[in-house]
Structure formats: structure tokens, C-alpha cells
């Protein structure tokens, strides 16, 4: 029975290690999870029926089967991954066991050790891996849990660890059927919790994608309307200039040079001031974003420098999210502190897209706190900043702030493939 529990703990540790190491490439699905759970359950039954001498062999093949089910890669890469997970499992257990031996006095490596003490150590390893996996998934998908859910998860995992530890110390007093029933309950309930976490992750991913698409559509719609209005203004201006040129030609033909000069001065003061400002960075999307932000903050002038092409390898949604959030931060700060100018420098240097957003500051500020928001919509704003960081990371880029006496600059570097 003790040997059987040891094998069960080993399988759980391997399962958590696989997800912890390869969660970025695993296409997580409940189908895969419950397939592993069914295989795990029948393996437990098989281990109970067969002699203990077969346990290590079954343990080995079951762990390899988990790797081949969960990972979507070539077979030789799966074998390498399995060896890596198997080695890490042993190293992690031995390291923690040594710590317990030195600090708590558990004689794990001394003489004829009991399997019970080893299983208690494995329980601690499982708890540590579960916490690490949860933190990694939460950072990746940016989902948040309420206090009620946090208390539930902590209480659930703590109860499991306590019961498993007690079952090892007082195994002779506890019915084996109870332990198997409890193990099955843990598998089912863990699947429910995992399904809940996956649903939260997918919901946040869908929300992020929807937010990107909405921003993209709104910006292009605004750009279309603005371009249409400016084209109409240009047509009107062209018609006016044609009439004014005719008037000027008549004045010159009649040798009324003084009147012609006065007319030219009048044109400078009125007609030329009506010329619509044209924003042209070489990229339609960037033009659209600048025009939209200029319309949202008419009292702040956005000065753009640089030129990029339209056919960037960076996804339009990603570029839209980065520029929107960086400009929003700079424009909002400038608006609250009565500054009238924000600078945007965007250009290509080899295969690197460089984006600098600069705005004035009223007093020295803490760069680490500059990205924090004072908006009423803290959740969406925080999610927007998280999207920027995630997008920059996706393109192997960097995001940092530089501070001078009177200005702060947000610098983004994105690596593209020509």
C-alpha cells in the first residue's frame, strides 16, 4: 500500500512538472486532462493487483505515456522532454528531502527509511509545484480571482495535503478503500478546478482579442471619416485657389501690382491657414491612430517624426494596442497637467521597429509607478498595459522608460523579420 501511494505521488509530480515546463506549448484541453485521469485510475488498479516489483516499471511507462499525450511535438523531442522531467523529478525530491533531513530531522537518507516519510516529502513537492503552476498560468493569462475563490483553492489544496500526510502516518488505521475513494475524489475535483482556471484563461484571452479588434476597427473607421473630410476640404481649397489664381492673373495683366501684392498677403492670412494638416508616416494604421488621438485630445498637439512602411511583419492588432496605450498614457498625463505637446517617433532600423513616445512632466516622478493608473476603469487600463508587455515580449522586444528633468520617454523596441 505504501509503495502504491509512492507511485501515485510520483505520477502526480510528473503531471505537474510537465504542465509547469511546457504550459506555453501544451494545447490544454479537458479531453487530454480526463484521458490522463482515466489512464491514471486504471494504472492505480493495475498496481494494486500486481506485485510491488512491477510498480517501478508501470510507473516508468505511465509517466512516458503522460508526456506523449500532453505534448504536441515530434516523438524524439517527447523522449527528450520525458528524460528531462524524470531527472527534474528526482532532483527536486532529493533536494527537498535533504532540506527536511537537515532542518526537520526526517531520516530520509539514513538507514532503512520508511516509505511514509518519503511520501510526506512528495506531498510537499506536489503542493509546491501546484502553486508554481498556478502562478505561471495566472501571469500568462492575466486573470484574477476573488477573495472567496482564493480561500477556496487554498483550503482545498491544504486539506488534500493534510489528509495525504495523515494517511501516510496512520496508514494502518485507515481503510484502504477510503484512500482510493479519496484519491478518485481528488482527481475529479482537481479536474473541476482546472476547468475553472482554463475557462477564466480563455475568457481573458477572448476579451483581449475582442479589445484589440474593437480598437482596430474604431481607428480605421475614424481614419476613413477623417480622410473623407480632409479630401473634401482639399477639393474645396483647390476650387478656391483656382478662382483666386484667376483674380491674381487679371490684376497682373492690368498692371495693378499693388493690388496684386495686397491680394497675395490676404491669401497668406486666410486661404493658406485653411489648408488641412496631413499626417503621413508611411503607414496607414499609424496615421489613423495619430488622427484619432488628435481628435480625442484637440488641445494637445501630437508631433510625429519618422517613416515606416505599410507591410510590416508585426500584426496590425498588436501595433494598434501598443501605440494606443502608450499615447493614452502620455496624452492623459499631459491633459491633467496642462501640457500642450506629445511627441511620437516611430521608424525602422534594420529589422527593429523603434517607437518612442515622449511627454513633458511637471515634477520628478518614480518610473516604476508611472504605468499605474488613476482612471476609474482600473481593470481595463491594467489589462491594456498587460497586453502591451505581452505583445512586446512576443516579438522578443523591450519596453522601458527613460526620465530626464522635464520629460519622460516610453521606449519600445520590436524585432521583426524582413
Name a few traits of the molecule.
Heat Shock Protein 90, 9% strand, five-stranded mixed beta sheet, 2 domains, 12 helices, 5 strands, 418 residues, alpha+beta
Structural class: alpha+beta
- How big a fraction of the residues is strand? 5-15%
Number of strands: 5
- Strand order across the biggest sheet? 1-2-3-5-4
Specify the biggest β-sheet. Answer: 5 strands, mixed
* Overall number of structural domains: 2
- In DSSP terms (H or I, runs of 4 or more residues), the helix count works out at 12
Shape: elongated
> How large is the radius of gyration?
33 Å
Order of helices and strands: HHHHHHHHHEHEEHHEE
Question: In terms of per-residue confidence, which ranges show pLDDT below 50 for 5 or more consecutive residues?
Answer: 108-113, 371-382
End-to-end gap: 61 Å
Rounded mean pLDDT is: 68
Q: Indicate the percent of residues in helices.
A: 55-70%
InterPro entries: HATPase_C_sf, NatK-like_C
Keywords: Membrane, Transmembrane, Transmembrane helix
Protein name: GHKL domain-containing protein
GO molecular function, one term: identical protein binding
Topology diagram in text:
Layout: H1 2-22, H2 30-49, H3 55-70, H4 75-103, H5 115-141, H6 147-169, H7 176-253, H8 257-269, H9 284-296, E1 301-305, H10 316-336, E2 341-349, E3 352-360, H11 367-370, H12 378-394, E4 398-403, E5 407-415
Parallel strand pairs: 1-2
Antiparallel strand pairs: 2-3, 3-5, 4-5
Amino acid at each position: 500500500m505504501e509503495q502504491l501511494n509512492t507511485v501515485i505521488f510520483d505520477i502526480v509530480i510528473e503531471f505537474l512538472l510537465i504542465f509547469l515546463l511546457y504550459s506555453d506549448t501544451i494545447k490544454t484541453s479537458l479531453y487530454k486532462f480526463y484521458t490522463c485521469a482515466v489512464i491514471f485510475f486504471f494504472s492505480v488498479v493495475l498496481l494494486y493487483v500486481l506485485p510491488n516489483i512491477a510498480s517501478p516499471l508501470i510507473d516508468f511507462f505511465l509517466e512516458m505515456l503522460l508526456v506523449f499525450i500532453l505534448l504536441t511535438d515530434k516523438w524524439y523531442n517527447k523522449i527528450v522532454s520525458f528524460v528531462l522531467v524524470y531527472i527534474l523529478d528526482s532532483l527536486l525530491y532529493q533536494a527537498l528531502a535533504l532540506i527536511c533531513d537537515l532542518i526537520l530531522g526526517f531520516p530520509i537518507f539514513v538507514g532503512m527509511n520508511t516509505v511514509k516519510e518519503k511520501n510526506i516529502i512528495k506531498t510537499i513537492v506536489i503542493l509546491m509545484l501546484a502553486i508554481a503552476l498556478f502562478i505561471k498560468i495566472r501571469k500568462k493569462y492575466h486573470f484574477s480571482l476573488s477573495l472567496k475563490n482564493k480561500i477556496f483553492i487554498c483550503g482545498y489544496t491544504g486539506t488534500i495535503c493534510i489528509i495525504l500526510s495523515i494517511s501516510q502516518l496512520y496508514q494502518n488505521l485507515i481503510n484502504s478503500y477510503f484512500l482510493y475513494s479519496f484519491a478518485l475524489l481528488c482527481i475529479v475535483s482537481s479536474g473541476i478546478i482546472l476547468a475553472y482556471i482554463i475557462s477564466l484563461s480563455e475568457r481573458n484571452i477572448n476579451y483581449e482579442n475582442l479589445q484589440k479588434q474593437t480598437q482596430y476597427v474604431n481607428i480605421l473607421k475614424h481614419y476613413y471619416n477623417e480622410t473623407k473630410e480632409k479630401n473634401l476640404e482639399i477639393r474645396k481649397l483647390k476650387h478656391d485657389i483656382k478662382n483666386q489664381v484667376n483674380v491674381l492673373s487679371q490684376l497682373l495683366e492690368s498692371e495693378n501690382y499693388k493690388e496684386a501684392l495686397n491680394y497675395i498677403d490676404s491669401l497668406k492670412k486666410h486661404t493658406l491657414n485653411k489648408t488641412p494638416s496631413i499626417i503621413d508616416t508611411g503607414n496607414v494604421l499609424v496615421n489613423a491612430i495619430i488622427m484619432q488621438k488628435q481628435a480625442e485630445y484637440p488641445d494637445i498637439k501630437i508631433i510625429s517624426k519618422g517613416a515606416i512602411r505599410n507591410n510590416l511583419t508585426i500584426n496590425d492588432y498588436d501595433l494598434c494596442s501598443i501605440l494606443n496605450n502608450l499615447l493614452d498614457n502620455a496624452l492623459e498625463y499631459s491633459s491633467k497637467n496642462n501640457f500642450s505637446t506629445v511627441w511620437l517617433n516611430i521608424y525602422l532600423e534594420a529589422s527593429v521597429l523603434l517607437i518612442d513616445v515622449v511627454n513633458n512632466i511637471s515634477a520628478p516622478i518614480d518610473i516604476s509607478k508611472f504605468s499605474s493608473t488613476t482612471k476609474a476603469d482600473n481593470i481595463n487600463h491594467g489589462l491594456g498595459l498587460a497586453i502591451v508587455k505581452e505583445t512586446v515580449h512576443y516579438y522578443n522586444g523591450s519596453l522601458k522608460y527613460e526620465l530626464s528633468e522635464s520629460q519622460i520617454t516610453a521606449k519600445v523596441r520590436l524585432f521583426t523579420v524582413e
